[in-house]
Amino acid sequence: MHLYINTTSPFVRLVRLAIEEKGLSDKVELEIVDPWADPDTFLKANPAGRVPTLTTDEGHVIAEAHLILRYLDEIAQPSIYPSEDLARTLEIAAPALGATEASTAIIIGRKSSANFDTDMVGSKRFRSIASGLAWLDANLPRDFADRPDIANFAAVTLIDYVVFRFTDRDWLADLPNLSAWRERQKGHPSVEATMPYI
Questions:
Q1: Are both 2-75 and 86-193 of the same fold?
Q2: Whether the Cβ atoms of residue 192 and residue 11 lie closer than 8 Å to each other
Q3: What is the rounded distance in angstroms from the CA atom of residue 75 to the CA atom of residue 84?
Q4: Domain 2-75, what fold?
Q5: Which helix (H) or strand (E) holds 119?
Q6: 35 closest CA partner among 25, 21, 45, 20
Q7: Do 45 and 62 contact (CB within 8 A), yes or no?
Q8: For 48, what's the count of Cα atoms within 13 Å in the CB-facing half-sphere?
Q9: Residue 196 near residue 12 (C-beta atoms within 8 A)
Q10: Distance from the first to the final alpha carbon of the chain
């Protein structure tokens, strides 16, 4: 399999966490691309120009993180959508995923408007991040050591992305439960292997 990635995308990280946890690392070739540069081979695979984009061994091209996660869950265990408490797991994951969407919207919005952070849309996006983190503080996902799932994937991805991208804010200062949860994930192989960087 072949996966187009960049090193900062939280959506790429969700997929890479699944690849690591499912033991598929040696079966997936990673190719770093700059999606803003529109390289020809990348656009041929995914005309939308978005990462992650996965090409399967059979030659099928799957774009969008959640669709790729669905495919990976079909071909390898453990499932990141646990049947025993699926609704609760998804309930925890949803605000984290929404806050991650909001955080990337800010980064992209800044490319088109110098005042994006303080305009109506930017302010709402920052509120979404804060409320998503507060939700997680009151509704902690399982630790990775207990079970990898979409909720802890979403939580660690959100936390690390906002810390990485918005260095002027101490996002976890008033969130002691979430702060302690993130501390417990340190050293977990998939978490360390997929940290964002420039």
A1: no
A2: no
A3: 20
A4: Glutaredoxin (3.40.30)
A5: none
A6: 45
A7: no
A8: 9
A9: no
A10: 24
Mean per-residue pLDDT, 76-91: 97
Pairing status of strand 53-55 against strand 61-63: antiparallel
| 175: Cα separation from own chain's centroid | 20
Map out the domains of the chain as residue ranges: 2-75, 86-193
> Considering the domain 86-193, what is its CATH architecture?
Up-down Bundle (1.20)
> pLDDT tens-digit profile of 141-154?
999 999 999 999 99
* Residue 140: count of CB within 10 angstroms of its CB: 16
Residue 129, CB-side half-sphere exposure with 13 Å CA sphere: 27
Contact (CB, 8 A) for 14 and 65: yes
What HEC string does 42-73 produce? HHHHCCCCCCCEEECCCCCEEECHHHHHHHHH
Alpha-carbon distances, residue 109 vs 101, 127, 181 (angstroms): 12, 15, 30
User: If pLDDT is split at 50, 70 and 90, which confidence band does 97 have?
Assistant: very high
Report the pLDDT value the prediction gives residue 57, as an integer from 0 to 100. 97
This prediction has a pTM of 0.96
